Predict the structure of Outer membrane protein beta-barrel domain-containing protein.
Amino acid sequence: MKKGLLVACLLLSIGFVSAQAYQGKGDSKFQIGANFQTNGTGIVTTYDFGMGENFSMGLQGSYILGVEKTIGADFGDRIDLKARFNANLGSVMNLGEMVDVYPGLDLGLRNFGGHVGMRYFFSDGFGIFSELGFPLAKYKTENLTPAEELNNQVVFSIGASFNLN
């Protein structure tokens, strides 16, 4: 535990360069990471484009790789695509230029949901992110099979964030 905390502090201290987590209108971010949820783990990618000083929108795609065999999930059960809308609050909360906190809403193939995430940039081009996603309204609400539940539950994601500006 102490080693993990020390490594995290060292990694975070490297970033006190001129990085900027969200630059406003025209900002462009790409993220790739792992997602963790009940009955499976997978890969997630997001692209966000700044529409205003504190507002961005984008796309998210995810595919669940490690699914328990007893669920019987096929390709259609494992994949999800979403449109995202974020409120980028790092500057509003005076967290510094390297940090962005972004709550948001998403509209996907399986549900209408929400997410809350955070980005930390070590340099102008590279950072890390973590995000928690959750469904607010499922399109199908009755008798979901375990395979249908895969993209209708709380998901935690963590990975790398890239500034495309």
Q: What stands out?
A: The chain has a mean pLDDT of 85.
